[in-house]
Structure to design on (734 residues):
């Protein structure tokens, strides 16, 4: 027993070393790329672009389910983006609160039969489309509840433009976010099928009339952890992954897609969480199977601010949902894709990496820790191994975080005060005293839920931006 | 006796002397309202002052009543002509409900309508005592509009840098410039100041530029509207001109060009 525990524990240590080395590799790819990103955005004239007729037109899709508190501010801020030609399509997904009424009243929308679009995807029943010529770029679809993916499909059916952007109804886009993403698209319009923006935590920021007036760090502990976590994930991770075209997810909170390919890949798939990861996998699969050159890009200077859950309960349900979505996608597509050279980066790197180091992460880490703990308890002289395990975790994690913070300060400088940077640095350490472990447990619980066939969304309560 | 000397001997001026000197020396704008009444008392003036402060939310008000000529004088600190005009409507209504109004209401503003506050005031006193205007009229003092008429502009843009740059540039060109950075604020400021021209972007927060333009067109003031925007799309130009804007300037723009166009619009 002791020998087994020791062997497994040592395996876990190696597992951690490998996974963290991979993380660092990705981080160094990110850092390598950040310089060209800085240069390219420094010399780009976004303001001038934002009025040019050569910029592609975008349909912004905003699925809204019970969002009466934030929806008006959100739509108003979307209508004031710096972008030449775009439309905002709000999809009321059978909300049980007053989302629909609030929108109808605020924008004086009336029912219309001539909204155009083409019905290319199956969705649940659409009750009506609303429009007001005073706001020619705004459409509202009222439909029966069918989930987020279903709402996005309904939005695609109505949309008039070749690019679609999906945005969460509780998020705020920076004024130039769309034009920055469009620039990435315009650099290579033939091959770019999807582009993700960066998601930042808005808790603590001063928000006025749907605009971020002042950027602050969250005051509460949980959002603060997520703030650091998101920076690590987006800056440290996604820039690197996108540079080898291995990006497997474009955040549902803000991403831009080629509509034609989304439709060809079958649209969003409803019925279970993780639709944002699902659509990217499907795009990869479609493009690779049809041998089309393509890329899934990431645009770290297109910023979307979002509200982070600030209670353990809501955060837990969000993370369990992510766990479920990840597992489902990996199971469904993994068997086709893993290890097959036909799927290139996806099959050989991204998928194996995701399965071994993301999906199975809780098992190895948690059981490895338990094994080491058991081993240490049986033989108290061996506490050093446990300490090495913990230190490794901490050291790599903090190194990764510092790298991401470094990029943030180098390229984006959203947090200007020295105090803020010290605070973020401190939270990089604190993350390993419970928060990260909680994440591992939640993911594990998510897997259990998935196996029990629980596919509910979980509750996500919002607070008004005005508070 | 010269005009100004006459004014100095006038009780209204003596009461206001201190305040007027202050505005004059610190080059702050100041609105002047004179009304012929049929008698007033300290309490009534206090009431008026309080209700004005309450309704418009500002505190810099000075009132004085001259028993001899039964003229009520009101000074409003930091107010341009457009705004003074706006407040005079309220004051007129107040006086009428109290049945105090017996003649015309004269309004003016300094330094918009004269380099010296004393000159403006004395000119107004002269006109009002000469019996110009009929009862209940609101009469804008024409007097000696100083040789260079100060035109007022409202600049609306989400871009603070552009706003600030243009404000400095246009102020040096002799315009009186107000700023707003979203549609709602622009509409509030427009109603308050009734500027001669509005230079606006079409892409604004809260209410967009098109809505602002339609609202301004609803007010019959002859305000000229110039669109200054990044948008170079035919659609936007078409829509703007359909709404009746006078000019459409796409960024990047030249401030010289902009000022020349505004000047020719206002001349």
């Amino acid at each position: 027993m002791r020998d087994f525990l020791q062997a497994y524990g040592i395996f876990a240590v190696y597992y951690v070393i490998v996974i963290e080395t991979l993380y660092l590799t990705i981080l160094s790819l990110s850092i390598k790329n950040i310089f060209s990103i800085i240069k390219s955005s420094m010399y780009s004239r976004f303001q001038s672009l934002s009025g040019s007729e050569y910029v592609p037109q975008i349909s912004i899709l905003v699925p809204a389910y019970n969002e009466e508190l934030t929806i008006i501010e959100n739509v108003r801020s979307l209508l004031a983006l710096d972008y030449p030609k775009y439309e905002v399509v709000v999809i009321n997904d059978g909300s049980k609160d007053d989302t629909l009424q609030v929108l109808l009243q605020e924008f004086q929308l009336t029912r219309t039969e001539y909204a155009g679009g083409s019905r290319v995807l199956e969705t649940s029943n659409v009750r009506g489309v609303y429009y007001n010529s005073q706001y020619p770029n705004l459409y509202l679809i009222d439909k029966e509840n069918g989930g987020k993916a279903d709402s996005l499909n309904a939005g695609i059916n109505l949309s008039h433009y070749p690019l679609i952007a999906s945005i969460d109804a509780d998020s705020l886009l920076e004024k130039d976010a769309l034009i920055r993403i469009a620039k990435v698209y315009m650099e290579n319009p033939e091959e770019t099928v999807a582009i993700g923006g960066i998601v930042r935590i808005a808790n603590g920021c001063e928000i006025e009339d749907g605009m971020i007036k002042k950027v602050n760090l969250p005051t509460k502990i949980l959002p603060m952890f997520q703030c650091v976590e998101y920076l690590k994930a987006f800056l440290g991770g996604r820039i690197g992954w996108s540079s080898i075209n291995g990006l497997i997810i474009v955040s549902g909170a803000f991403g831009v897609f080629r509509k034609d390919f989304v439709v060809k890949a079958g649209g969003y798939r409803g019925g279970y969480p993780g639709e944002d990861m699902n659509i990217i996998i499907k795009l990869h699969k479609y493009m690779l199977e049809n041998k089309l050159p393509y890329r899934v890009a990431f645009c770290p200077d297109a910023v979307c601010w979002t509200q982070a859950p600030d209670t353990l309960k809501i955060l837990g349900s969000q993370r369990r949902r992510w766990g479920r979505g990840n597992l489902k996608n990996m199971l469904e597509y993994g068997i086709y894709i893993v290890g097959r050279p036909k799927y290139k980066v996806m099959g050989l790197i991204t998928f194996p990496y995701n399965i071994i180091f993301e999906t199975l992460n809780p098992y190895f880490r948690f059981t490895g820790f338990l094994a080491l703990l058991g081993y240490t308890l049986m033989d108290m002289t061996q506490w050093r191994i446990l300490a090495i395990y913990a230190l490794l975790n901490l050291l790599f994690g903090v190194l990764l975080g510092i790298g991401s913070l470094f990029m943030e300060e180098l390229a984006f400088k959203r947090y200007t005060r020295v105090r803020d940077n010290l605070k973020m640095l401190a939270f990089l350490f604190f993350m390993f005293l419970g928060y990260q472990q909680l994440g591992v447990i939640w993911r594990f619980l998510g897997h259990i839920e998935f196996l029990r066939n629980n596919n509910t969304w979980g509750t996500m309560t919002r607070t008004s931006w005005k508070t | 006796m010269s005009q100004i000397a006459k004014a100095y001997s006038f009780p209204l001026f003596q009461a206001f002397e201190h305040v007027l000197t202050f505005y004059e020396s610190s080059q702050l704008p100041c609105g002047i309202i004179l009304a012929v009444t049929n008698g007033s008392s300290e309490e009534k003036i206090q009431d008026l002052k309080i209700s004005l402060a309450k309704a418009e939310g500002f505190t810099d008000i000075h009132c004085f009543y001259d028993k001899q000529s039964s003229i009520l004088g009101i000074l409003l600190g930091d107010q341009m002509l457009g705004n003074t005009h706006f407040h005079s409507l309220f004051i007129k209504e107040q006086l009428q409900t109290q049945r105090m109004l017996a003649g015309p209401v004269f309004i003016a503003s300094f330094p918009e309508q004269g380099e010296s506050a004393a000159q403006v005031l004395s000119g107004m006193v002269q006109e009002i005592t000469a019996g110009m205007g009929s009862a209940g009229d609101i009469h804008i003092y024409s007097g000696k509009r100083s040789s260079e008429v100060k035109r007022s502009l409202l600049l609306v843009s989400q871009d603070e840098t552009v706003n600030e740059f243009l404000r400095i540039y246009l102020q040096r060109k002799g315009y009186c410039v107000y700023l707003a950075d979203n549609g709602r604020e622009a509409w509030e400021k427009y109603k308050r100041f009734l500027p001669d021209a509005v230079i606006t972007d079409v892409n604004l927060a809260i209410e967009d530029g098109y809505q602002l333009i339609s609202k301004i067109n609803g007010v019959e003031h002859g305000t000229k509207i110039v669109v200054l925007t990044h948008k170079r799309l035919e659609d936007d130009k078409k829509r703007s001109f359909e709404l009746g804007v006078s000019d459409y300037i796409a960024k990047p723009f030249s401030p010289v060009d902009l000022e020349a166009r505004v000047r020719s619009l206002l001349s």
User: Anything to note?
Assistant: The radius of gyration of chain B is 20 Å. The first strand of chain B starts at residue 30 and ends at 37. DSSP finds ten helices and ten strands in chain B. The longest helix of chain B spans residues 81-97.
